[in-house]
Amino acid sequence: MGLLYVTVAKRNPADSTAPVKYYLQSKIRGRKTYRNLLETAGKNITANPKEIDLAVSAWLDALTAALSDGFSVEIEGLGTFATSIKSEGVLTEAEATASKRKNISLTFRAKPEMRKKVNDFTLEKYTPGGTL
User: Fold this and answer.
1) Burial of 53 (C-beta count, 10 Å sphere; 0-12/13-18/19+)
2) Distance CA 131, CA 68 (A)
3) CA distances from 62 to 20, 51, 53, 71, 74 (A)
4) What is the Cα–Cα distance from 57 to 70, expressed in whole angstroms?
5) How far apart are CA 1 and CA 106, in angstroms?
6) pLDDT in tens, 54-111
7) CA–CA separation, 78 vs 116, rounded Å?
8) pLDDT tens-digit profile of 14-24?
9) Which residues contact 51 (CB under 8 A, 6 or more apart)?
10) How far apart are the two ends of the chain, measured CA to CA in Å?
11) Please, are residues 113 and 79 in contact by the beta-carbon 8 Å criterion?
12) Which carries the bigger pLDDT value, residue 47 or residue 102?
């Protein structure tokens, strides 16, 4: 099984006279839940899904605590989680206070080896009516 794709026609928004070009766009097969992943992981190791769930929950709590304390968190072989703050722009440094916060978001930067693995995924053209 590979990554499904569809082709999408797009115009150049900066040049309405330019010819339409076709691009690949990933097609999602469906959704896997946390529970689905626990069951799959449980088949590959000696821990049962409940034990895995407890371990992952504890790990997520530790991740959240580290992020809320201002740390970035690197996961070996996967990437780094960090936070990013968006705020209103103000004219003086004195006005730049926490009350100007718009939102705090979570960012993720994949490690080069993970990006390479993803880049090496096989592609399959999606056919409507075909098997997802």
Assistant:
1) middle
2) 43
3) 49, 17, 14, 11, 13
4) 20
5) 30
6) 999 999 999 999 999 999 999 998 999 999 999 999 899 999 999 999 999 999 999 9
7) 11
8) 998 999 999 99
9) none
10) 10
11) no
12) 102
Q: Which residue has the tokens 């916060």?
A: 101
β-strands 73-75, 123-125: how paired?
A: unpaired
- Name the nearest CA neighbour of 104 among 57, 62, 64, 75: 64
CA distance 4 to 88: 40
Q: Which structure tokens are listed for 57?
A: 């929950």
Tokens linked to 21: 């070009």
- Reduced to 3 states (helix: H, G, I; strand: E, B; else coil), residue 68 is helix
Cα distance between residue 83 and residue 88, in whole Å: 17
